[in-house]
Amino acid sequence: MTFSYKQYQQSSAYIREKIGSFIPKVAMVLGSGLGFLGDMVQDAVAISYNEIPHFKASTAPGHKGQLVFGTLEGQPVAVMQGRMHHYEGYSYDEVSYGVRVLRLLGCDTLVVTNAAGCARREWMAGDLMLITDQIKLFSPSPLRGENLCQFGPRFPDASHLYTPRLQQVARDVAAEQGTLLREGVYFYCYGPQYETPAEVRAAQLLGGDAVGMSTAPEVVVAAHCGMEVLGFTLLSNMAAGLQEHPLSEEEVLEAAASARDKFSELVLGCLSRL
Ligand code: HPA
């Protein structure tokens, strides 16, 4: 499905009525385990995805499916509590729909978090990773189809999808907080099955450090419409082939719960400095 510019406008107009003159600056798409940051937003106005025209509901476990507007660490934010994934059956336009709507509402920065498998043998499950780049070679672009030039050009540059300046903010904050922050490339996989060990080896050979099923489409769309992007991965497990036992969703959610404090401290620390 391809959306028209008018549809994005209709969604943003609906939200505008609910939030009045509030202008969000930072859009946040929070993955497994960090959705609770949406509950910390002050003077919050929450709007369920279900009620926004053209928005789709998120069905993934641990994802609430609402937009929360308000202030977090002094920043005017729009938190997407729950993201849509391609593996749920959504097209890439649907997955990234909210980012463009938030752009229309005023956001100029996107903060994304996710949980992913660790493809680096020398790192550990539970480590945090600053995303410096991504690989999304084997799936169509969310920008496929008619280009909506109101958002950006037909052939956008992708040299710096993750904004170097914001990466430096994250390094500084992590150093101040004494948090180990790995840096690496997020390798996007369709899912929902976890990767095979051979696929993880392929990802390693191609330069991937983490393997995951989200984030990359939204980031392409955000960069296309001129947003700055900051992304973090919780390496919730060693990727397939790098650990003995089979991967499970429970393991991912448990890792997300254990990392919750240091992960949220890092993200909140960055937020005040964006
Ligand atoms: N692979 C893909 N996605 C994931 C993983 C993984 O190992 N862990 C959490 N999300």
Shape: globular
> Compute the gyration radius: what is it?
17 Å
Distance between the termini: 34 Å
H/E element order? HEEEEHHEEHEHEHEH
Largest sheet: 5 strands, mixed, barrel
Uncertain runs are: none
SS summary, helix count: 7
Strand content: 15-25%
User: For the largest beta sheet, what order do the strands appear in spatially?
Assistant: 5-8-7-6-9
Which ligands does the model contain, each kind named once?
A: hypoxanthine
Q: Quaternary state, please?
A: single chain
Features:
single chain, 274 residues, alpha/beta, five-stranded mixed barrel, 7 helices, binds hypoxanthine
Question: Can you tell me about this structure?
Answer:
The protein is an alpha/beta fold and 274 residues long. It contains seven helices and nine strands; from the N terminus they run H-E-E-E-E-H-H-E-E-H-E-H-E-H-E-H. The chain has helices at residues 5-19, 92-95, 97-105, 164-177, 197-206, 216-224, 249-271; strands spanning 26-30, 42-48, 66-72, 75-81, 109-118, 128-135, 181-188, 210-212, 228-238. Strands 5-8-7-6-9 form a five-stranded mixed β-barrel. Helix 5 links the parallel strand 7 (181-188) and strand 8. Helix 1 (5-19) crosses helix 3 and helix 4 packs across helix 7 (249-271). The protein is globular and about 50 Å long. The mean pLDDT is 94. The structure holds hypoxanthine. Residues 115-117, 189, 194-195, 211-213, 236-237, 239, 247, 252 line the site of hypoxanthine (HPA).
